[in-house]
Write a structure and sequence with these properties.
The structure is a homodimer of 203-residue chains.
Chain A (H helix, E strand, L loop, with lengths): L5 H21 L6 H8 L3 H8 L2 H22 L6 H18 L1 H10 L7 H19 L7 H20 L8 H14 L18
The structure holds a DNA duplex (30 and 30 nucleotides).
Amino acid sequence: MPAPSHATEATRRAILDAAAELLAEAGAERLSIREVCARAGVTAPTVYHHFGDKDGLVLKVLEDSFTAFVQTVDALDKPQDPIEALARAWDGYVAYGVAHPMHYRIMFVRLAHTTPIPAATAAFQRLVDVVSAAEAEGLLVPPLEDACKAFWSAMHGVTSLIATGYLPPDAPASALVRDAVIAHITRPRDGARRPAKTKRSKP
Amino acid sequence: MPAPSHATEATRRAILDAAAELLAEAGAERLSIREVCARAGVTAPTVYHHFGDKDGLVLKVLEDSFTAFVQTVDALDKPQDPIEALARAWDGYVAYGVAHPMHYRIMFVRLAHTTPIPAATAAFQRLVDVVSAAEAEGLLVPPLEDACKAFWSAMHGVTSLIATGYLPPDAPASALVRDAVIAHITRPRDGARRPAKTKRSKP
DNA sequence: GGGGGGGCTGTAACAGCGTTATATTTTCCA
DNA sequence: TGGAAAATATAACGCTGTTACAGCCCCCCC
């Protein structure tokens, strides 16, 4: 198996880029192989030679999306305080969904864990890590697994409603749910003051 | 325009039932008009005569789903205490997603409010009502709109992860997020004790 | 340098899809 | 009973994903 030449690798990338672009525009079901071919300047059998079938192509695009997602998360600065780190991770997660709504929808909704994607498990590991950091300092109330799932559920709820257009990107609901979940799965550090709830002054 | 005969109404129902069944089995993109026709014992133009096109058919199925959803919610008993009513509404909402995962996914994810559905706004109104009940007794902290969106976001996050198979139906995360959000958007009634967090005894 | 083999790409076709123009039957009212 | 309108069927169009087949081209080895 010789190393792939530059030309063939360029073809692969052209197809993947066209597919990713089309996926973001129209969604997975409206993505057409022929349209991908037209944009990438290749013909159908080339796509099938490289990616097997349409699902294989979409899967590879999603792998790239998950990789980019992990890189986005890793690029965030990590506050020392584990609880602040949770809030930062939340905001970073939601920001990715705001920036790439269609990809987010396909990654976390349409996919529905039919095929294991390494980058996807890596992404979930980042979540476990940031929650574990709170646990390591004795700041976690429920078991780690429950806390992770609760955190992810709430985060996903906010993000998916934004990604589908039900909520505006800057909805106060995001911070509201974020603070609620963080407050509920963590205990205040000894001697530290928990940040107050966001309140509205009522005359 | 004569009233539709029993026969024609029966074919409508046969088509709708077949479509709803197929939708729950395979999802919207894999629903095929021809398969619906085969199951309902009709031919394609009949479907197009009654529902316009495939989207129209799916839309009608979703209308029925939303109506059933509202009926399910309305059938729940409503505790006097607004905060307990919030928890009950949460559980009812999640239970519907558990019972009809594919329909839930299509109703709240794929649809993405492209077309207004009266029954859908009625469903949202039920949510507003139960949150308003808490506000009416002065138990709400954030503005009503923010509280509704936060409540819905968290509820949808839990439900959609269950509906897509990421979380088991009886995940403790549901109760965890539920209690977190309710605790955060409401204030304790004077003289009432807020139910304690679920804690694990640590030796 | 020249075969030659194998990965890569194009041609042309198939079955299935949503959709519709047209024709035919059925139904209901005057 | 006649006739109009609603309801259904036939057959076809263009599109889709997919693939058998054939040719190209690059790279390795003699």
